[in-house]
């Protein structure tokens, strides 16, 4: 044991290995806790992973860039995961084809509501233009939203935070809200959370009901298509 | 497994090439999704396509594996909030309130539209 523990830390804290391990370990722990509470909405594994890792970075004085050096391997998979959504869509093509009209109606109305409501509300409370633009695509999955944000010359890293925050809020609120409203059609419940809260909402829907999960996945992928076309239009019309 | 992951990446790559090449206002992975869906549908029609990852649930299992831990993939982007602490201090509450209201409104409007449209459709079907 000749190595000084401090120099070992200096070495490890700069290596991708440590931060990839921390990301997976913290997520595995928070996911196990979520399972132990029978998937209670407030035990959302994304929410708790983020603050635990964030606090750990601040305590150790590690920059986000260093952290991302390790975590990028997980982040990269968002693109392939979007492609992979073709599989649940393909496997449920009969259920989807049977509900195609309600889905298209809910898709168009829902995507427009998601974009317009956030832009109007953000303008109403007087947020700066750069923030409004960055919030506009918050209901689509992170990779897509960051692409939209980039094309608007907004701030993609702020968009990513807004996307994740929206997803967590949707995932936490959807089950109590839908139960309170007495909505028992799991196709409709899943579709709504897929539109409003993308992948984190979809992950939540799969925990509650398999059909809800499938419809959430479809809603999320269709919403990625519609929102990419809609946001540039809405921003031109609505933002001062 | 490797062949299935390669097929998924290949679809994404083709999507990116088309989107960049034609200057489409679409994300590459979404076009990749369409490619993979078309491939799966084409495989059912043309037996010649059912080989490699497109047989024995190859690409299906790889996709299920990726989607099983979908929420993990959002963690690195979410931790990015540590870079935005000045913005959180300045506008954090306003942003959180705006996002929360927008989420609830979107959930309610979407679920209502779905239910109304599906009720109208079943009525239209039973009427004639």
Summarize the structure.
Chain A has 240 residues and is mostly helical. Chain A is 82% helix and 0% strand.
Describe the protein:
The complex is a heterodimer of chains A (240) and B (128). Chain A has 2 domains: 1-76, no CATH class; 79-240, no CATH class. Chain A is 82% helix and 0% strand. Chain A has 13 helices and no strands. In chain A, helix 8 (100-124) packs antiparallel against helix 9 (129-135) and helix 8 crosses helix 13. The termini of chain A are far apart. Chain B has 2 domains: 1-68, no CATH class; 78-128. Chain B is built from 5 helices and no strands. Chain B has helices spanning 2-22, 28-45, 58-68, 75-79, 85-126. At the A-B interface, helix 2, helix 3, helix 4, helix 5 and helix 6 of A face helix 1, helix 2, helix 3, helix 4 and helix 5 of B.
Spell out the key features of this protein.
heterodimer, A: 240 residues, mainly alpha, 2 domains, B: 128 residues, 5 helices, 76% helix, extended
Tell me, briefly, the overall form of chain A: globular
Note poorly predicted spans of chain B: none
Mean pLDDT of chain A: 87
- The run of helices and strands of chain B is HHHHH
Oligomer category = heterodimer
What gap, in angstroms, lies between the N and C termini of chain B?
A: 51 Å
SSE order of chain A, one letter for each helix or strand: HHHHHHHHHHHHH
Structural class, from secondary structure content of chain B? mainly alpha
How far apart the termini of chain A lie comes to: 64 Å
Sheet with the most strands of chain A? none
> How is the biggest beta sheet of chain B arranged?
none
Given as residue ranges, the uncertain stretches of chain A (5+ residues, pLDDT < 50) are: none
């Amino acid at each position: 044991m000749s190595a000084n523990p401090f120099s070992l830390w200096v070495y490890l804290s700069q290596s991708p290995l440590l931060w990839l391990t921390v990301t997976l370990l913290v997520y595995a722990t928070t996911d196990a806790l979520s399972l132990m509470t029978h998937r209670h909405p407030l035990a959302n594994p994304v929410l708790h992973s983020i603050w635990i890792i964030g606090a750990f970075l601040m305590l150790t004085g590690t920059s986000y860039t260093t952290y991302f050096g390790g975590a990028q391997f997980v982040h990269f998979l968002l693109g392939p995961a979007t492609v992979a959504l073709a599989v649940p869509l393909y496997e449920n093509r009969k259920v989807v084809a049977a509900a195609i009209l309600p889905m298209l109606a809910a898709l168009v109305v829902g995507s427009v509501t998601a974009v317009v409501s956030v832009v109007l509300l953000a303008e109403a409370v007087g947020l700066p233009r750069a923030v409004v633009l960055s919030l506009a695509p918050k209901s689509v999955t992170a990779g897509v939203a960051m692409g939209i944000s980039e094309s608007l010359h907004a701030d993609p890293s702020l968009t990513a935070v807004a996307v994740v925050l929206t997803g967590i809020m949707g995932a936490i609120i959807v089950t109590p809200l839908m139960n309170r409203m007495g909505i028992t059609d799991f196709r409709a419940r899943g579709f709504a959370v897929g539109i409003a809260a993308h992948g984190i909402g979809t992950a939540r829907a799969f925990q509650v009901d398999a059909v809800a999960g499938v419809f959430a996945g479809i809603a999320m992928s269709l919403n990625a298509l519609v929102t990419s076309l809609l946001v540039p239009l809405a921003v031109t019309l609505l933002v001062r | 497994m490797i062949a299935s992951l390669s097929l998924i990446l290949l679809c994404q790559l083709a999507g990116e090439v088309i989107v960049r090449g034609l200057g489409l206002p679409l994300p590459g992975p979404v076009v990749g999704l369409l490619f993979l869906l078309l491939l799966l549908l084409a495989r059912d029609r043309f037996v010649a396509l059912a080989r490699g990852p497109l047989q024995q649930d190859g690409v299906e299992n790889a996709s299920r594996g990726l989607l099983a831990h979908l929420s993990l993939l959002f963690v690195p982007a979410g931790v990015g909030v540590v870079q935005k602490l000045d913005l959180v201090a300045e506008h954090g509450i306003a942003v959180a309130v705006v996002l929360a209201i927008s989420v609830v409104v979107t959930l309610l409007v979407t679920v209502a539209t779905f239910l109304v449209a599906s009720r109208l459709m079943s009525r239209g079907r039973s009427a004639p």
